[in-house]
Structures are given as structure tokens and as C-alpha cells.
Amino acid sequence: MFWAMLAVALGFLGTAVLGVLAVRVFVEARRLGAQVEASARRISVASADLERAAERTARAARSL
């Protein structure tokens, strides 16, 4: 009977550990998603700035 109770307790503890690790992975995945979103936003702004600068440079080159 002792071994059966020990096996049940260890099974429960193993499931609890896996649950805690799953929550940590979920939280980190959400954090990574937020960082990717912020990076994409910054890249978009930088791309628009580069496009405007290229237009200005093209206009200046045509006037020469």
C-alpha cells in the first residue's frame, strides 16, 4: 500500500511540476510576442523614415 501511495504522490508532483513549467513557458511566449510586435513597429517606422529620405535624395539628385 505504501508503494501505491508513493507512486500516486510522485505522479501528482510530476504533474504539478509540468503545470508550473507550462505556465512559465506561456508567460515567456507572451513576452516574446510583445517584443516581436514592438520590434516590428520600430522596423516599420524606420522603413518609412528610410523611404522618405530616399525620396528626398532622389529629388536632390535630379536637381543637380
Structure at a glance:
It is built from one helix and no strands.
Overview of the structural elements:
With 64 residues, this protein is mostly helical. Helices cover 97% and strands 0% of the residues. It has one helix and no strands. The longest helix has 62 residues, at 2-63. The termini are far apart. The mean pLDDT is 95. This is Secreted protein.
- Characterize the biggest β-sheet: none
Q: Strand tally, please?
A: 0
Give the SSE string.
H
**Poorly predicted ranges (pLDDT <50, ≥5 residues)?**
none
Rg to the nearest angstrom?
A: 28 Å
How do the strands and helices of this protein lay out in sequence?
Elements: H1 2-63
Task: List its traits.
about 60 residues, mainly alpha, 1 helix, about 0% strand, rod-shaped, Secreted protein
